Amino acid sequence: MKKIFWRVFIYFGVVLLVFSIMLGLMFTRFNRTNIVGAYKQQLGDLASGVAKRTSQAAKNGNVDSFVDYLKAIEDFCNLQSIDIWIVSNPQNDSALEEDYTNMNLEAVDLPVETQNILQSAYDGKKTSYSDYDSIYQQTMLHLAVPIRDNDGDVTGVVVATGPMEMQENTIVQYQKYMFICVISGLLLTLFLALFFSQQLIHPIIRLKEMALVLAAGKYEQKTGIHRRDELGQLADSMDILSERLVEAQEYQKQTEQHRRDFFSNVSHELRTPIAVAKGYADTLADGYVDDEQKKMEYLKRIQRECDGMERLVSDLLIMSRMQNPDYQLDIEVINVIAVAQDAMRSMRILMKEKNLTGEVTYEDECSLIDGDYDRVRQLFVILLQNAVKYSDENTQIHVHIARTDGQILVDVKDFGSVIPRTEWENVFEKFYRASNHGANEGSGLGLVVAKSITLRHGGTIAVSSTKEDGTIFKINFPETLQKIT
Predict the structure, then answer these.
(1) How confident is the model at residue 407 (pLDDT cuts 50, 70, 90)?
(2) Helix, strand or coil for residue 326?
(3) Chain centroid, CA 202 distance in Å
């Protein structure tokens, strides 16, 4: 991760360095151009003024006043360290007279550049150049302006020569200040690059550490990153992942605990009937019982224990199917009334043994739901079997079906053993039996299966039990949305 940090820092620093150098060079060039241009403009204005005054004096023939003017100009230029040459144009027939000039260039060995600007001025062009001048032993700015008569002919040239020392010093000072500013700005930007690189890399390092923490199984950790950018969104996603992993871990622990409890309970439930059946079988196999009636009693006992274990295994398989999300129900539109009546008919023989009566009543004969007929019938069979088992003799088992607000409500009522109020929620737990059910046989899984079937059909199931109203299992199914004609 440090490699990324230094890479980002170097890239950012190089960009800032190049930008700072380019900006410094640009402003230096811009400033030099402005300084030289301003000085050139100053000399140009001075030379143009002298050229205009010389042209007027030559036109009017006023030599005395021009001499006074020229002296004043020379005094001013001396104060400014500027030389003003007024020369005649030898290439023009109407050249300036010597009275209006102050320099004869015939005996002067002029540099090539000076000759060039003079020639350009003779041709009517205003030109200039700057260079180191061996005569003045410093860098000088030379500027030539043509002098024109009334006809526009170039009669002479004004050459203004001024030192560039002050301008060069100004440029050098500006370059120093610019260099200091660039270096200071560069250091500041490098510091900012360091700061922002750390700001960028720190969340990445934290996310890497968080990933390693999650890989180690410590799902409760959080990134602690709060940003309004893509890294912040990634950190939020990592925190959500952490929460989901914690939930998954808790669910896994609960599932593992349920599995252990389940196998523990199954082992406990099977141990007793197996031990009883084995005891009777061993007794018969060892020949300790000679009485045929006694043998038959032992065999029937073994048979009852095997039937109980068969029911237990059957309930376990059904419960496992119902709790498996991949198990597919055979869904169709079914009438709950018909299913309840079918289940009630299958209970007639058992009910007759205790002289019980059964009745299915309903408020709307079109009580339809989307469900699996066999599974819903199994739900009613479980509830009716429990009702038969725990009902008092000569009582009634009543199933009532109502339809209201898009719901199908089913009540299964019997009169017999009362479930204590504190145990109403517990009866739907695995292997739970109400404390007052005494020696009645049962696996403790029937109501668990009933609840699983109800939940798979999107419904709910609850129980209430009192001596006056009896024990009532209340089931709530969502009504079908299909249009039945």
Answers:
(1) very high
(2) coil
(3) 17
**Distances in Å between the alpha carbon of 29 and those of 16, 24, 65, 174?**
20, 8, 44, 11
Question: What distances in angstroms separate CA 200 from CA 10, 193, 211, one per listed residue?
Answer: 14, 10, 18
Residue 139, CB half-sphere, CA atoms under 13 Å: how many? Answer: 10
Partners of residue 477 on adjacent β-strands: 408
In the three-class reduction of DSSP (H, G, I as helix; E, B as strand; rest coil), residue 412 is classed as strand
Distance CA 244, CA 476 (A): 32
- Single out the residue of 68, 53, 65 nearest to residue 156, CA to CA: 53
Spatial separation of the C-alpha atoms in residues 338 and 21, rounded to whole Å: 92
Output the pTM of the full model: 0.47
Q: Virtual CA dihedral for 368, 372, 376, 382, nearest 10 degrees?
A: 180
Place of tokens 């939940």: 455
Question: How far apart, in whole angstroms, are the C-alpha atoms of residue 427 and residue 448?
Answer: 8
**Span 31-89, pLDDT tens digits:** 777 877 887 888 888 888 888 888 888 888 888 888 888 888 888 888 878 888 888 88
User: How does DSSP assign 118-147, residue by residue?
Assistant: HHHHHTT--EEEEEEETTTTEEEEEEEEEE
Tell the burial category of 215 from Cβ atoms under 10 Å away from its Cβ (0-12, 13-18, 19+). exposed
Amino acid occupying residue 453: I
CA distance 193 to 137: 48
Assess contact for 409 and 401: CB atoms under 8 A: yes
CA atoms within 13 A on the CB side of 347: 30
